[in-house]
Design a protein that fits this description.
Length: about 180
Amino acid sequence: MLYTLGEMAEKLNRSPVVLRGLQRSFKLPVYRGADYSESYLAFLDTVLALRTLNVAEKTLLKLWRIERKLMRMLHADTTGSPTWFLDSCGSTRNRKRRLLLSHFDIGTTLPSGAIQLGFAFSEPQRERFASRGMGEDVLAVLNLYTGLHNEISDTVRAEMPRLFSALSLSKWFGR
């Protein structure tokens, strides 16, 4: 199913202005009409859920840059789609192997510090560096990702008591 910006705003209970701000911040493609996919909607939903859990947008932007870098290093763009980096959003299979924002499956449980370095999703282009050097770069980026993921986990855990408190207030407002 495809959505307009207005339909996504309604589903996410946010104004189109808020969604435009997220598109700008996360450098997402902007379309006219009903050209937004389910995965695009799922990405925005994930970002908004994490913001609700008090994760700073600055932190999410940093994580997003790292995730995109990891996906590029792993040659994840197999479709040539302008939204290739969002195409896994909403996937729920093998959740522990998926990156937090893009839901891209890196093939190993996260955060494990291990990744199959020769694992390319499309035919790799000729690299300037030896594969050993490239593998070390992937591990360094994965370590950055893991550190930031742990920071986000700590923020979410700290916010849980307030979330449950807010949910308990919802009984006053009916369904």
